[in-house]
């Protein structure tokens, strides 16, 4: 098989790493990829939302399967484009249709879906500029903190949690006046749920599903989970507090109704569902759907999957997941993100990365890196994820930290408390 992975982060390097283990995989392409994917695959310079460039790449390289990493191409309809284009019709694409991708592309749509299928979630109402006053009145009926969400994709920045009611009203007005561009033309206001978060990953072929390992992500830049939101500074899998009782509730109340809801609404969905869950007391509630894998969650979830990854993806495309065994490595995985100083605000690029060759007993997944001559240099905010496996999650974390110390680049930063709250 010739397989193309779309994207350029740690998530996509992990997909390529997992594919490279399969004997069924002949050639791996990653577009646009990074310095890490260049070492195990062929990088193709193209934009993940340039569908005609992707078509050309698929046809020229006789690609049989495409795995879509990020949400943008899915929300823009790449799966529908493949289905409608004669030269791409037979290519196995992993990722939901545009209608499926709306579960991430529109928070309002996701809430409507959850309501329609009785999936537990925070109470909400949504507003547009025309209903601003009603929105302010709705805020009065809630107790603080107030949760305001831009309906559309806002690069992870579209959710505001505000203590003060007058500030919440001001922010609502700012959002409806274009604070996040078109993404905040509609704003969802939600009841605040006080609990502990985890992510559940589901692979579905549209009929059947497999629950993949859980993960916990550390979103904020600073120690103690303080400071600005990032794409994720580290992750642990499985989540120690996700015991069988909680997982059974999640499967019965959330996973099954989600997959059945997709079926009932005749939505083509062959791909990953990333369910952001908050555990309030002992009860799980959905806070968001993403229609792709998480990053850096992929860097801890995928290395634990022992099943041949090409077989698993093919079963997803061919809707055979019910007869596909899923074998999971019982060990825990931990990943630590090394980021550029300044991230998630302004940061420099092009800093030489050294010491990766000294890493032992951990896996180095590249994120924002690129090759410059013979050097590997930084090319993004999140630069490298260092993943380790161990029977004890605390040892997995320790191994990753020991190896992080061996890697250097100018103004490198990482959190030193990943997993310490568990
Ligand atoms: P989202 O993009 O919807 O996942 O929201 C980003 C983050 O905001 C989540 O990971 C939570 O930490 C927080 N959040 C979102 N919705 C709620 C809610 N209803 N109650 C409490 N926290 C929330
Ligand atoms: N780490 C969070 C995400 O991928 O959305």
Please explain how this structure is put together.
The protein is α+β, with helices and mostly antiparallel strands. It has three domains: 2-97, Rossmann fold; 123-190, Dna Ligase, domain 1 (2-Layer Sandwich), CATH 3.30.1490.20; 196-404, D-amino Acid Aminotransferase, Chain A, domain 1. The protein is built from 13 helices and 23 strands. The protein has helices spanning 10-20, 35-40, 51-60, 71-75, 78-84, 98-105, 107-116, 132-141, 165-176, 244-264, 298-301, 309-317, 393-404, and strands at residues 2-7, 27-32, 42-43, 65-68, 92-94, 124-127, 146-150, 159-162, 187-190, 196-204, 209-211, 216-217, 220-222, 226-229, 234-237, 271-280, 283-290, 332-340, 363-366, 369-372, 375-378, 382-390, 412-413. The strands form six sheets. Strands 12, 15, 18, 19, 22 and 23 form a six-stranded antiparallel β-sheet that branches. A five-stranded parallel β-sheet has the order 3-2-1-4-5. Strand 1 (2-7), helix 1 and strand 2 form a beta-alpha-beta unit. The chain is globular. Adenosine monophosphate (AMP) binds next to strand 7 and strand 17. Glycine binds next to loops.
Brief write-up:
This protein is an alpha+beta fold and 422 residues long.
Termini, distance in Å?
41 Å
Q: Treating each run of at least 4 consecutive H or I residues as one helix, how many helices? A: 13
Backbone structural class: alpha+beta
Overall radius of gyration: 21 Å
Show unreliable segments: none
CATH superfamily of the largest domain: ATP-grasp fold, B domain
What fraction of the residues are assigned to beta strands by DSSP? 25-35%
CATH class of the largest domain: Alpha Beta
Number of domains: 3
Helix content: 25-40%
* Average pLDDT over all residues: 97
Please state the overall shape, judged from the principal axes of the Cα atoms: globular
The CATH architecture term of the largest domain is 2-Layer Sandwich
- For this structure, the CATH topology of the largest domain is D-amino Acid Aminotransferase, Chain A, domain 1
For the report, how would you describe the main beta sheet?
6 strands, antiparallel
The ligands bound in this entry are:
adenosine monophosphate, glycine
The total strand number stands at: 23
């Amino acid at each position: 098989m010739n397989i193309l992975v779309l994207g350029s982060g740690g998530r996509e390097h992990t997909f390529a790493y997992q594919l490279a283990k399969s004997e069924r995989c002949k050639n791996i392409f990653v577009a646009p990829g990074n310095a890490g994917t260049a070492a195990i695959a062929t990088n193709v310079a193209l934009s993940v939302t340039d569908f005609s460039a992707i078509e050309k790449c698929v046809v020229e390289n006789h690609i049989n399967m495409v795995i879509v990493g990020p949400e943008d191409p899915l929300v823009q309809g790449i799966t529908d484009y493949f289905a409608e284009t004669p030269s791409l019709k037979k290519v196995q694409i992993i990722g939901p249709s545009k209608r499926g991708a709306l579960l991430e592309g529109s928070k309002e749509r996701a809430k409507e879906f959850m309501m329609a299928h009785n999936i537990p979630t925070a109470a909400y109402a949504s507003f547009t500029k025309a209903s601003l006053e009603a929105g302010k009145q709705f805020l009065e009926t809630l107790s603080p903190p107030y949760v305001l969400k831009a309906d559309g994709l806002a690069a992870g920045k579209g959710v505001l949690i505000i203590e003060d009611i007058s500030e919440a009203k001001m922010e609502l007005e700012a959002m409806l006046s274009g604070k996040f561009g078109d993404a905040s033309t509609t704003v969802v206001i939600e009841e605040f749920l006080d609990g502990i978060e985890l992510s559940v990953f589901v692979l579905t072929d549209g009929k059947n599903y497999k629950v993949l390992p859980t993960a916990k992500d550390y979103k904020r830049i600073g120690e103690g989970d303080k400071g600005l939101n990032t794409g994720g500074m580290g992750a642990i899998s499985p989540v120690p507090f996700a015991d069988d009782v909680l997982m059974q509730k999640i499967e019965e109340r959330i996973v099954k109704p989600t997959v059945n809801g997709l079926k009932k609404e005749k939505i083509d969905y062959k791909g990953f569902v990333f369910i952001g869950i908050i555990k309030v007391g002992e009860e799980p509630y959905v806070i968001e759907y993403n229609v792709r894998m998480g990053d850096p969650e992929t860097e801890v979830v995928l290395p634990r999957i022992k099943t041949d990854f090409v077989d698993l993806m093919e079963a997803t495309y061919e809707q055979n997941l019910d007869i596909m065994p899923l074998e999971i490595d019982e060990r825990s995985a931990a990943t630590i993100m090394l980021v550029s100083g300044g991230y998630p605000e302004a940061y420099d690029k092009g800093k030489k990365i050294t010491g990766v060759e000294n890493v032992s007993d951990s896996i180095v997944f590249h994120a924002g890196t690129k090759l410059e001559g013979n050097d590997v240099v930084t090319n993004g905010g999140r630069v490298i994820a260092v993943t380790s496996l161990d029977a004890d999650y605390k040892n997995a974390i320790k191994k990753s930290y020991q190896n992080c110390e061996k890697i250097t680049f100018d103004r490198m930063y990482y959190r030193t408390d990943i997993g310490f709250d568990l």
